[in-house]
Amino acid sequence: MAALQRKIRLLQDLRFFVETASAEELAGFGDELRAVMTSSGRSVGSILGALLGASGPAAVAEIAAGRIGAYQTAPAGGRPVAPAARRGADPAGEVAAITARPAGSEDRPPEAAAAGPAVPGGPASAADDDLRAEALAAIDETMKSIPAGSFVMGSETGPDAEKPPHKVSLSAYRVCDHLATNREYSLFVKARPGWSKDRADPELRDESYLFDWTGDQFPEGKDDYPVAFVSQPAAEAFAAWLGKRLPTEAEWEYAARGGLVGKKYPNGDQMNDKLANLAKQYKGTTPVRKFEANGYGLYDMAGNLFEWTSDWYGPYSAGDALDPSGSAKGEYKVVRGGSWMSGAGALRVSSRVDMESVTCAQIGIRLVDRGAQGG
Questions:
Q1: Rounded-to-5 percentages of helix, strand, coil across the chain
Q2: Which end of the chain is less enclosed by CB atoms within 10 A, N or C?
Q3: Where in the sequence of the chain do the CATH 3.90.1580.10 domains occur?
Q4: Which of 6-15, 59-68, 248-257, 357-366 is predicted with the least confidence, judged by mean pLDDT?
Q5: Which CATH entry fits the domain spanning 111-373: 1.10.10.10, 3.90.1580.10, 3.30.450.40, 3.40.30.10?
Q6: Could you give the CA distance from residue 65 to residue 53 in angstroms, rounded to a whole number?
Q7: Which of 111, 57, 45 is nearest to 355 (CA)?
Q8: CA distance 42 to 45
Q9: Alpha-carbon dihedral sign for residues 197, 203, 208, 210
Q10: Whole-angstrom Cα distance, residue 27 to residue 159?
Q11: How far is CA 67 from the centre of its chain?
Q12: CA dihedral (20, 26, 29, 33) positive or negative
């Protein structure tokens, strides 16, 4: 079973790379796979292409086998999409077609998730209260108030996964102005040792959990870098520990837009490496608050790391919605915002990616709450 899980997660990581890399990066990846030969005389690319052609993500199989030309590429280096004839009615992504909203499911108000889950991971340390107070003292000062309002969620011109554009109304809430940092997450690990790198439950994270840490110590000099390689359950536990939660997908997009209407990115219609950490230009994550904040005073809503939301992935409904929180259940969680590896297309405010909840990869944490009304 463990071997099977590792193979499944490998396929998931490959699909994640395909969905976020530029066309040039994908072509280079395919070339590298086909250049590595096995003892049988076949290239790794041909073997991987044959295996995945039958059982894995179609895009990876095409690229590994050298057939990237059969794929269309999204504008501005976005994710490649197969011709509709190969992938049915939804050319935006092979998973979208099988993660539909269950019949009869209803939107749940954010308050339903506000309390968060009980913090898993074993008993608290003796210093739990002090460590939580220390973390909250820093984080609460950075929570930005987002006014109640309405916006059009999604995109008419993006992939099918972003359609149809629909009106969403949200109650007021607060969002942390930065991605949770290594230092902040380290306080959580000290308070809840069950979430340390070597002790975290394998059912709640994959093998890359806190990949860049050594034991319980994050990389030297990276206190203010965003904590990476955290699963969705880990992000939920961290938020619950602080009496906060993850944003719903709608809350994330509304906050990312920063009060702008009809714009592609958090600061307008342009995106480059002077505005965000993207396309491997900085060879890794950058400190939080390095780039200009959006209109709501929020940093890194585009690039640096993808961000977990609390929502299960599913298609949008066409009707107006009040404080929606996605499907009641599902197979994948929604991540938003793009990472330091992503092309500009993945950094659009309407771009959405489905991800297995145990995946760590290039994903970080942003906290929200209701402020004085409770979180």
A1: 35, 15, 50
A2: N
A3: 111-373
A4: 59-68
A5: 3.90.1580.10
A6: 9
A7: 57
A8: 8
A9: negative
A10: 21
A11: 28
A12: positive
Per-residue model confidence as pLDDT tens digits over 223-237: 999 999 999 999 999
Using alpha carbons, list the distances in angstroms from residue 74 to 6, 84, 187, 272, 374. Answer: 30, 14, 40, 17, 41
Q: Which has the closest alpha carbon to 316: 110, 165, 130?
A: 165
The mean pLDDT of 127-149, rounded to a whole number, is 97
Which pLDDT tens digit goes with each residue over 299-342? 999 999 999 999 999 999 999 999 999 888 899 999 999 999 99
- What tokens appear for 279 in the block? 């396309």
To 5 degrees, how large is the angle CA 304–CA 309–CA 310?
A: 160
Phi-psi label, residue 254: left if phi above 0, alpha if psi -120 to 50, beta otherwise: alpha
The fraction of the chain above a pLDDT of 70, given in percent, is: 67
N-to-C CA span, the chain = 38
81 against 302, higher pLDDT: 302
Q: Could you give phi then psi for residue 37, rounded to 5 degrees?
A: -100, 145
Residue 128: both structure tokens together: 């739990």
Residue 320 CB: number of other CB atoms within 10 A? 11
Burial 127-144 (b: 16+ CB within 10 A, else e): ebeebbebbbeebbebbb
Whether the per-residue pLDDT at 74 is higher than 80: the answer is: no
The answer for residues whose C-beta is within 8 angstroms of residue 34's C-beta and 6 or more apart is: 43, 44, 45, 46, 64, 66
Cβ(227)–Cβ(239) below 8 Å: no
Question: How far apart are the C-alpha atoms of 225 and 348, rounded to whole Å?
Answer: 22
